[in-house]
From TrEMBL, chain A:
Localisation per UniProt entry: Membrane
Sorted UniProt keywords: Membrane, NAD, Translocase, Transmembrane, Transmembrane helix, Transport
Biological source species: freshwater metagenome
Principal cellular location given in the protein's record: membrane
Protein name: Unannotated protein
Membrane topology note: Multi-pass membrane protein
Any GO MF annotation of the entry: oxidoreductase activity, acting on NAD(P)H
One GO cellular component term: NADH dehydrogenase complex
GO biological-process terms attached to the record: ATP synthesis coupled electron transport
Membrane-crossing residue ranges in chain numbering: 14-32, 37-57, 69-89
InterPro entries found in the cross-reference section: NADH_UbQ_OxRdtase_chain4L/K, NUOK/Mnh_C1-like
Family of the protein in this entry: Belongs to the complex I subunit 4L family.
Automatic annotation (TrEMBL), chain B:
Ranges that cross the membrane: 29-46, 53-74, 94-111, 148-169
Protein name per Swiss-Prot or TrEMBL: Unannotated protein
InterPro entries for this protein: NADH_UbQ/plastoQ_OxRdtase_su6, Nuo/plastoQ_OxRdtase_6_NuoJ
Keyword Calcium: no
GO function term, MF aspect, one: NADH dehydrogenase (ubiquinone) activity
Organism of provenance: freshwater metagenome
């Protein structure tokens, strides 16, 4: 018996697997790119992958606490971006190029 | 219909994510990030997380990406970066192997733990025309009752982040004098 396409419903596992793929793309981005701004964006990708899996699992186990966790992750992500971009701006005061290879020494 | 929403949102998420990793111009990467964030917001709506979808668009696409673009313009790094050379030998193949490994392990964990998912909560209220604020009400009850301490601590975190950024970004008068 053939299953019609319109009958197929995406289950929570589809969303979880998509978030795993998104997390993997973010991981590769952090390892490959050398521009710290792009690396930050890849960290945001990984945070969003985790948020997606939180929301999908909250729906799966019928518990609102997954959405509460996403709420706090959003706040922490905003604070993290503010501090990280502040560090990048203060580093760029002393240098002209923006690659992480130039930041190998701790002595400013 | 749900399948259509999933396919479209998944395409947005994956195209945007690949754009962030592969675009050489930081401005284009930031725009790809916006695409990914909107796709995630669509998936939040599909899971009855309407408040989080709105916050996702306002905070992420509205504030964080604008902050990224602001810093890119401020630092003047909006020219394309040369991606043709690998800084470390075999860096990209190794990164691809590690990324595929991480993804594979997580997918294996998802598939193997699939049978263990069971309902443990009281249910998530569906937002309908009759009760348009069902999700916000339920989320607010959870945050301001069970998680109120974490909520208060979050305000301290934001205060620390703001003060730290101001201290870091301030032009210090002692720069260059050795103090």
């Amino acid at each position: 018996m053939s299953v019609m396409v319109s009958v197929i419903q995406p289950t929570e596992s589809w969303y979880l697997i998509l978030s795993a793929v998104l997390f993997g793309i973010g991981t590769v981005g952090v390892m490959v790119r050398r521009n710290p701004l792009i690396m930050f964006m890849c960290i945001e990708l990984m945070l969003n992958a985790v948020n997606l899996s939180f929301v999908a699992l909250a729906s799966e186990v019928a518990d609102i606490d997954g959405q509460v966790a996403v709420f706090f992750v959003l706040v922490v992500a905003a604070a993290e971006v503010v501090v990280g971009l502040g560090i990048i701006v203060s580093i760029m005061r002393r240098r002209t190029t923006l690659t992480v290879d130039d930041m190998s020494g701790l002595k400013g | 219909m749900e399948l259509f929403v999933f396919v479209v949102a998944a395409a947005m998420v994956l195209v945007g994510a690949l754009g962030v990793v592969t675009r050489s111009n930081p401005v284009h990467a930031a725009m790809s990030l916006v695409l990914t964030l909107f796709g995630i917001a669509v998936m939040f709506v599909a899971h009855n997380a309407h408040f989080l979808a709105a916050v996702q668009v306002i905070v992420y696409a509205g504030a964080i990406v604008v902050l990224f673009l602001f810093v890119i313009m401020l630092l003047g790094v909006d020219q394309a970066e040369d991606l043709s050379v690998e800084p470390i030998t075999n860096q990209r193949p190794l990164a691809a192997i590690i990324g595929l490994g991480v993804t594979g392990i997580v997918i294996a964990a998802i598939v193997s733990s699939r049978a263990g998912f069971r309902v443990i909560g009281d249910g998530i209220n569906e937002t309908t025309v009759e009760s348009p604020d069902a999700n916000i009400t339920q989320l607010a009850r959870a945050i301001f009752s069970d998680n109120v301490f974490a909520f208060e601590i979050t305000s301290v975190l934001l205060l620390v982040a703001v003060i730290g950024t101001v201290v870091m970004a301030r032009k210090s008068k002692s720069v260059g004098t050795g103090k």
